[in-house]
Amino acid sequence: MAAGAWLKECARVVAAERERLTGLDAAIGDADHGANLDRGFQAIVAELDLGDEAEPGAQLVAAGSLLIRRVGGASGPLYGSALRSMGKALSQGADLSTALEQAVEAVEKLGKAVEGDKTMVDALRPAANAMALAVQEGIGVREALDRAARAAEEGAAATTPMRARKGRASYLGERSEGHRDPGATSAALLIRALAATW
Ligand code: ADP
Ligand code: MG
Ligand code: MG
């Protein structure tokens, strides 16, 4: 279990994809999603102990708290709560699949979005389900994570034709159709980073 490696990979990927994420948010939001997440994950790398000695659950709780404090907008509290819930679950001895489920439930509870609302839930919910199913089938954690990452990527791609029902993009009504959701896109990046590092 290497939460620090995951968080560093998140920071790297978010920085690399910052302009793309902000571009997606320019189309149906306020053009700050890449900048918001980059600020948050850079703070995590700069301010937290991400070494392998630290307890993974505690690292994720600290990272989540930092995202809530430093990232403005909708995505900070949502991703922050997700990391905090995931960290708490791991600290209590949960396996990664259960911890991921807790993270996704935290987002669903706070944002009150369901699949089809054109939000990060469209990537996160299929990822948690794919992971749980893979574990149920007795598949190892690496393959289970790869399936989760693919499910998240497919879920993010599927947001393009949707009409947004939550968040800023929902103000656009039918004009939100035909644009990929920035938060679903970043969520797929974070799950892929998890699969690459855990
Ligand atoms: P803001 O919209 O406040 O500028 P960001 O641009 O950082 O925040 O994040 C926007 C993303 O947040 C959206 O693309 C969407 O995926 C996600 N989002 C917004 N509202 C919700 C919600 N209620 N539930 C889940 N995700 C949401
Ligand atoms: Mg925005
Ligand atoms: Mg904003």
Question: Features of this protein?
Answer:
198 residues; mainly alpha; Serine Threonine Protein Phosphatase 5, Tetratricopeptide repeat; 9 helices; binds adenosine-5'-diphosphate; binds magnesium ion; Dihydroxyacetone_Kinase; kinase; glycerone kinase activity
Please tell me about this protein's structure.
The longest helix is centred in the middle third of the chain and has 17 residues, at 75-91. α1 (3-16) crosses α9, α2 (18-28) runs antiparallel to α3 and α6 (96-111) runs antiparallel to α7 (121-136). This protein has helices spanning 3-16, 18-28, 33-47, 56-70, 75-91, 96-111, 121-136, 141-157, 182-197. It is 69% helix and 0% strand. The chain has 198 residues and is mainly α. The chain starts with a helix and ends with a helix. The chain has nine helices and no strands. The chain has one domain (1-197): Serine Threonine Protein Phosphatase 5, Tetratricopeptide repeat (Alpha Horseshoe).
Number of strands: 0
Give the ordered list of helices and strands.
HHHHHHHHH
Largest beta-sheet details: none
Could you give the distance between the termini? Answer: 6 Å
- The helix content, as a percent range, equals 55-70%
Enumerate the distinct ligands. Answer: adenosine-5'-diphosphate, magnesium ion
- How many discrete structural domains? 1
Assess the beta-strand content as a share of residues.
under 5%
Please write the CATH class name. Mainly Alpha
CATH-assigned fold name: Serine Threonine Protein Phosphatase 5, Tetratricopeptide repeat
Enzyme class: transferase
Domain DhaL: 1-196
EC number: 2.7.1.-
GO cellular component, one term: cytosol
